[in-house]
Write a structure and sequence with these properties.
Elements lengths: L5 E12 L3 H9 L4 H4 L6 E5 L3 E10 L2 E14 L4 E8 L2 E14 L2 E13 L6 H31 L2 E2 L3 E2 L23 H6 L11
Antiparallel strand pairs: 1-7, 2-3, 3-4, 4-5, 5-6, 6-7, 8-9
Bound molecules: fe (ii) ion (FE2).
The site of fe (ii) ion has 5 residues, from loops.
């Protein structure tokens, strides 16, 4: 799809995994793992509430990991099944990731990952390269996230409770609430603390 002054590159992939729907939602809205699993170093959460978040991250260029750049990411929970992130980077107008998580059974879920990059007109000649980069980034991100999903499903089935341990093999708390509780030792709010009191009403989530 293209118009005179921009081009949209799209890539979509579906997966079915033996995890609960809430494990999929948890994985999308857990921002603590981004810097350790995906290499989004220095991730900062500028704002978050029950259905949105604003992140300030440093991303790496696929195929060229020695090049990194700052991105501002706006996360939205469109509905119960669909979350969307919209970010702006120096190399494109917008990158839109739409992640749909559909329960099939209690322990089986379908994931539909759709990525669109809207290129500046003067970068249109790089469209084939961008398509390769999106495919690589999508597949790599999925592969990095999959062990986290499977491990969380496993520990929940064993009765693990977040920040507590194994409470009882009969108590399996799969439901989550957003924003997710965070480790007190993380550094995800350093920048946000500097720009308070703008975000003061939301400090209880830190
Ligand atoms: Fe992830």
């Amino acid at each position: 799809m293209s118009t005179s002054n921009f081009r949209i590159i799209e890539y979509e992939k579906k997966h079915i995994v033996d995890v609960n729907y809430n494990v999929g939602i948890w994985n999308i809205w857990d921002f603590e793992h981004d810097q350790y699993i995906h290499g989004y170093s220095d991730t900062q959460i500028l704002y978050e509430n029950t259905n949105s978040a604003i992140l300030y991250q440093r991303a790496k260029v696929p195929f060229l990991p020695f090049i990194s750049y700052r991105i501002l990411v706006n996360m939205q929970r469109i509905n119960k099944y669909t979350s969307q992130s919209i970010s702006y980077s120096p190399f494109s107008k917008l990158a839109v990731a739409t992640m749909t998580v559909k329960p099939i059974t209690e322990s089986k879920t379908e994931f539909i990952m759709n990525y669109k990059v809207i290129l500046h007109s003067y970068f249109k000649f790089l469209a084939p390269l961008y398509r390769l980069m999106i495919q690589k980034w999508t597949d790599q991100t999925w592969a990095e996230d999959l062990p986290l999903k499977l491990r969380r499903q496993d520990i929940i089935q064993k009765g693990f409770k977040d920040f507590y341990g194994i409470e009882s093999s009969n108590q399996k708390k799969i439901e989550i609430s957003i924003p997710l509780p965070k480790l007190k030792s993380n550094n995800l709010f350093l920048l946000r603390k500097k720009i308070t009191p703008f975000f003061k009403e939301d400090e209880k989530n830190q």
